[in-house]
Recover the amino acids of this structure.
């Protein structure tokens, strides 16, 4: 391990070491265990920060990897890659994860099972950083599966599923109310569908390329991409590959697990939905974007245009789908979960649109990663602040909130800073990054996804301001009134909780003020990387050309902000309009509200089509195969042995004469056998 790559190795190794040491630290004391876990996450952040100078050096000392032999027969190495994509993503993951770990010190204080919690949190961070820093697809997949198993354990952290915790950690209402263990299993099974497809695609590519290495896949793209195309397998392989990010990043049609993942602790929700697991799919597409872009635009394998188009359309449709559901949700964390699904859709749209442009490699990476960075900051802040609100009110439902501005002024302020970024209000970061995504999608000629992206921007402004109004303004919620009569005092969160989300909220504003510079800086580092990514000087020159911003994008984005934000402000903050009156007068609005609240009935359809039939089949298999098959066979075998033993027992009568006769007969038989063997008989 050279000093040049030490940060790239240690940033993911140390959190895993911290996870392994957690039970030992717990033996010393709970305090040592808790602070020890946070220290290991801090060390991971510090070592990722040591990679930043590589971005700033002139000329940049980038685009390198260090690898050791791992699996000789398959020519597979274990290595790390140091380039703009890995450096930026690793720092986002590590620093936001560290702030979430600090927040957890108070939020999870005195919860049972904290040794398990800290183990999986650190292992989660280590797995995500391994995924980011890995220099090949196979090693990346180990980190990919690591975050999957950790998410299952952390979403179902309160696995006892106690009805007493209904307001604390269940999710949903009515027939779609799920306990933590169910939500954890749902996330695990749904993401495994995408993971199986991804693994199949990885080995299909390996079968023709003979390597898992990202750099080798770019260098030999003209060989393996052409061969796969000739065999008619390139398009299936690329779409199977896309299913992995679709599952992990909760995009349609594998999006239903993420809203129900809110059954986990809020710190887990912030970790999974802001900086780590759901961004893994976006990162993986960004990582292979140069490979597929090179194969499409330089090698000339035209089937990959379908991959980019499908990526963009799925992103745009998912963004719209989830935004409509967020408009009517009654749970504060679920609003943010739908928002995460929606905003990741924007990132898919940016990367897919960039892949279609001959000069769009840099543009796609810039807009996609810019929105990822912006979203990571403001969404982590919103989740952590929402956790403080739930902690204070002791309920996940917004109809138990209301009027909290007076009691939690700092939390209200920080949530507004992050919420305005989510809504896309200038000069907050969300405005610039969202506008960048819309620009690339329009430039690529994807009119349908561009329109969906615009409409989603209006819906985002609406549901964001609605959430803030229902939480902090208006009349007191029913449960909050009960608390004031002596059951529980509502007050501002502890500093150890509000400082982390305060830092992230201010960061959203800071990124917004330097938004144009930040976008130019990202564009520059990816432009410098273009020759490495394309390995073709003429195309590299084309790749660094900036896409001119269409003049209509900016005013249209502002118009959507007004269309969505003003009505929400008047209804939910100023209380000038009564939504119940509108719903009472319009059958269409009532039907749409019900349709959106029921998640477009997609979740119900999945349960009716897959979950319930499989459960019934499993019950039938248990009854007929287990009980009437294996159990009957085992019982019959036991009875057979018992009958045989009973009959054999009759030979042992207990009479001495019979025993002596048996011994003599035995001795006679042995003697005859010996005579036969000796040839004497």
């Amino acid at each position: 391990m050279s000093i040049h790559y030490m940060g790239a190795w240690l940033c993911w190794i140390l959190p895993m070491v911290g996870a392994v040491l957690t039970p030992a630290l717990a033996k010393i004391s709970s305090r040592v265990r808790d602070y020890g876990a946070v220290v290991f996450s801090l060390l991971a952040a510090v070592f990722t920060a040591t990679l930043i100078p590589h971005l700033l050096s002139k000329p940049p000392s980038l685009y390198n990897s260090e690898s050791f032999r791992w699996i000789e027969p398959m020519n597979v190495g274990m290595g790390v890659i140091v380039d703009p994509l890995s450096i930026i993503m690793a720092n986002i993951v590590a620093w936001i994860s560290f702030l979430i770990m600090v927040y957890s010190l108070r939020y999870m204080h005195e919860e049972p099972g904290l040794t398990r919690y800290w183990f999986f949190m650190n292992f989660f961070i280590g797995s995500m950083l391994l995924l980011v820093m890995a220099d090949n697809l196979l090693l990346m997949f180990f980190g990919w599966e690591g975050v999957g198993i950790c998410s299952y354990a952390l979403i179902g952290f309160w696995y006892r599923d106690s009805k007493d915790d209904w307001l604390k950690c269940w999710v949903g209402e009515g027939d779609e109310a799920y306990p933590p263990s169910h939500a954890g299993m749902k996330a695990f099974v749904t993401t495994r569908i995408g993971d199986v497809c991804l693994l199949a695609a990885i080995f299909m590519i390996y079968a023709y390329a003979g390597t898992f290495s990202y750099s080798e896949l770019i260098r030999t793209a003209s060989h393996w991409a052409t061969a796969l195309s000739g065999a008619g397998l390139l398009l299936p392989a690329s779409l199977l590959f896309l299913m992995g990010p679709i599952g992990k990043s909760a995009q349609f049609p594998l999006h239903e697990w993420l809203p129900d993942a809110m059954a986990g602790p809020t710190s887990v929700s912030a970790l999974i939905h802001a900086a780590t697991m759901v961004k893994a799919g976006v990162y993986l597409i960004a990582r292979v974007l140069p490979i597929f872009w090179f194969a499409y635009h330089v090698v000339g394998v035209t089937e990959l245009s379908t991959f980019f188009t499908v990526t963009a359309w799925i992103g745009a449709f998912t963004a719209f789908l989830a935004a409509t559901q967020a408009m009517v949700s009654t749970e504060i964390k679920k609003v943010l979960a739908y928002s995460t699904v929606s905003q990741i859709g924007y990132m898919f749209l940016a990367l897919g649109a960039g892949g279609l442009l001959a000069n769009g490699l840099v543009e796609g990476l810039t807009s996609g990663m810019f929105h990822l960075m912006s979203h990571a900051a403001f969404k982590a802040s919103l989740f952590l602040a929402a956790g403080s609100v739930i902690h204070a009110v002791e309920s996940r439902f917004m109809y138990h909130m209301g009027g909290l501005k007076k009691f939690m002024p700092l939390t209200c302020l920080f949530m507004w800073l992050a919420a305005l970024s989510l809504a896309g209000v200038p000069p907050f970061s969300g405005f610039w990054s969202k506008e960048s995504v819309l620009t690339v999608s329009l430039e690529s000629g994807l009119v349908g996804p561009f329109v969906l992206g615009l409409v989603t921007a209006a819906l985002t402004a609406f549901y964001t301001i609605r959430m803030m109004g229902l939480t902090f303004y208006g009349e007191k919620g029913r449960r909050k009134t009960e608390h004031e009569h002596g059951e529980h005092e509502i007050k501002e969160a502890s500093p150890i909780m509000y400082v982390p989300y305060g830092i992230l909220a201010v960061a959203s504003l800071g990124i917004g003020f330097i938004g144009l510079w930040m976008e130019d800086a990202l564009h520059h580092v990816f432009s410098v990387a273009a020759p490495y990514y394309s390995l073709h000087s003429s195309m590299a020159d084309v790749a660094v050309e900036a896409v001119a911003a269409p003049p209509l994008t900016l005013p249209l984005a502002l118009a959507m902000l007004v269309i969505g934000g003003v009505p929400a402000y008047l209804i939910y903050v100023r209380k000038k309009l009564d939504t119940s009156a509108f719903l009472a007068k319009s059958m269409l609005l009532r039907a749409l509200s019900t349709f959106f609240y029921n998640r477009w009935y997609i979740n119900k359809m999945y349960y009716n089509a897959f979950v319930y039939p499989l459960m019934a089949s499993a019950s039938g298999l248990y009854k007929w195969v287990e009980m009437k098959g294996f159990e009957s066979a085992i019982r019959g075998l036991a009875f057979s042995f018992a009958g045989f033993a009973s009959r054999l027992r009759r030979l042992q009568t207990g009479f001495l004469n019979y025993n002596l006769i048996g011994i003599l007969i035995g001795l006679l038989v042995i003697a005859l056998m010996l005579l036969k063997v000796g040839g004497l008989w």
Notes: The chain has four domains: 1-155, 156-597, 599-649, 651-681.
